[in-house]
Amino acid sequence: MENKMITQPPILAYIGKISDKPNWSFPSHKHDDLSEIIYIFGGEGEFRIDGKPFTAQKGDMLIYNKGVLHEERSSSVQPLKAFYCGVSNLKIEGFPDCFVLPTGVSPHIERNKYSDKVETLFSMIFEESTIQAQGHKAISENFLTSIILLIQRMVQLDNINPTKSDTAVLALQIKEYLDKNYHKHLTLNEIAREFHMNPYYLSHVFNDMYNDSPINYLISRRMGEGKRLLINTNMKVREIASLLGYENPNYFTRIFTKTMGESPLQFKRSETNERLDMNGKT
């Protein structure tokens, strides 16, 4: 990948940090209005990006282009330590709007000679966003532009090749159908009828590829979208429940609490305390 010109500089939507949370996880979700950059400065995490699994550790980066499904989980043995930020407004020559990476390039960048520079820049952005001194927004976004330029160098340095789909076309088609219809409370038989096949065989194909059942995946997707909405909107729990297909908000709360280990309101409070937006709010 040759270096591409940034024709419209990025806006930093938010900056956050995860540290020493062995049970931390975020189910499958996506951002339709921004891309996200993750830098790991300690520990280890497991990630699934657009259906593909990755294990990342100190010095590695994960890039989620706008609209790409992803999920994250900290290692319980070596808890994940990571900076993350949301990137909007970005335009790079030849890339779709707001994409940090060109399509087809691996979203996992392993540690290389530029990693320490990226970590320093992330630390400075987090510090600027925390202190909120005069000019912090402009300074932070200049640092963010530098990170994006370094990412281009990293891709070029590591000669990262385009990812290629494997032979599990059917599993991918099932996943795409579930991603499109996650808000519907489908049964396995209903999903199987859509693909004109035996439900047990369909479940086997999906599980073999994604190590999960179709129904568990649907629940995980709904919880992931629920988390995203709790963080990024002012929607009430009952509104989120309704959007995700739950007529009874109390049932949604029970499922969320059982799956995530804390209630929607507890999650929103704890996550909000650790994330800074560029208006200085926490």
TrEMBL record:
Q: Does the keyword DNA-binding apply?
A: yes
Q: Which Gene3D superfamilies match?
A: Homeodomain-like, Jelly Rolls
Q: Which UniProt keywords apply?
A: DNA-binding, Transcription, Transcription regulation
Question: Which parts of the sequence belong to the HTH araC/xylS-type domain?
Answer: 172-270
Q: Name one Pfam family in it.
A: AraC_binding
Q: Tell me, what is one Gene Ontology molecular-function annotation carried by this entry? A: DNA-binding transcription factor activity
Does the record bear Ribosomal protein in its keywords? no
Q: Which SUPFAM superfamilies match?
A: Homeodomain-like (SSF46689), RmlC-like cupins (SSF51182)
Q: What is this protein called?
A: AraC family transcriptional regulator
Species name: Halalkalibacter alkaliphilus
Phylogenetic placement of the source organism: Bacteria, Bacillati, Bacillota, Bacilli, Bacillales
